[in-house]
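Thread: sanity check for a docking pose with magnesium ion

Original post by kr_44:
Hi all, I'm comparing my docking run against an independent structure prediction. Below are the sequence and the ligand SMILES. Could someone generate the full complex and paste the structure tokens? I mainly care about where the ligand ends up relative to the chain.
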Amino acid sequence: MIVCDSLVKIYKTKEVEVLALQGLDLTVNRGELMAIIGKSGSGKSTLMNIVGGLEVPSAGRIIVDGQNLAEFTERQMVQYRKKQIGFVWQKSGRNLFPYLTSLENIEAPMLAIHKSAKKRREKAEELLALVGMEHKRGSYPAQMSGGEQQRVAIAVALANEPEILLADEPTGAVDTKTSSNIQDLFRKLNRELGLTIIIVTHDMKLAHKVDRVVMISDGKISTEKILKQHYRDMLDQLESPDMTDETHEEYSVLDKAHRVQLSDDMLAAAGIDTNKVKVRIEDGRVVIEAEEKKE
Ligand SMILES: Nc1ncnc2c1ncn2[C@@H]1O[C@H](COP(=O)(O)OP(=O)(O)OP(=O)(O)O)[C@@H](O)[C@H]1O
Ligand SMILES: [Mg+2]
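Reply from moderator J.T.:
Ran it for you. Here is the predicted complex with magnesium ion included:
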């Protein structure tokens, strides 16, 4: 559904140039529920903004649903942002109009799509029920908790029935329990609506509840973790098992030039502390080890 091909993003300011993405490759399948993790400044929001059509890459290609975003006219881009993508931001202030009620907030993005007010109201009621917020239909954002506002924000993002939901740290400002409820909601939307969802998060607990976790470091994907089938089945039965590191298998990602990135933990465990390693093939495996120390 989404193919990022050697994406590069350079921000130029008066004094400096920042290389936010450095040749990032990523493929997201239709109906996937995935998380992106990585240190502050690693390029996560930059990637989300490029996928959402809010920013243009400096080099590389982004293809969504077979369409190269670079080839869109301005009008097509506006349509793409409005209809194909739903956004949820960390700060609920960016998601909701303070002077509109929950229902009105959900109706607002539909103005461009549905002419009939009755139809908008029906659809808004439906979405409010989907996110479990019917009881707050007449409340203004300031009258709701952070978690409640985020649920309404998710309904707003879904108003125009997007195929892709992008959430940039949606649970950054709520407590653990609320965060867990929102995670379950993402999973439900993914399973029930077949929505493709990408969530940026710092929260490892949340990252453990998705099918795939990719880690960005220095503007590139470095490792991927894929949820083991056994845990996937348990989650689908909504038993909500305690997610630990055991639930996912970790993969390092080969880039186009066949380079692979190793984590600090791996290097430490293998006793590699210089920038030279020995690489050899052993029984069909690639073995990387520390260079022999000269006495
Ligand atoms: N508009 C901009 N102008 C200049 N530099 C920018 C701009 N936006 C982002 N950057 C820089 O690009 C790099 C990547 O930023 P980005 O916001 O994508 O990181 P992030 O992974 O989302 O971080 P965080 O976890 O803190 O949200 C950072 O070094 C940041 O300072
Ligand atoms: Mg960010």
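The chain has ten helices and 13 strands. Hope that helps with the comparison, let us know if your pose agrees.
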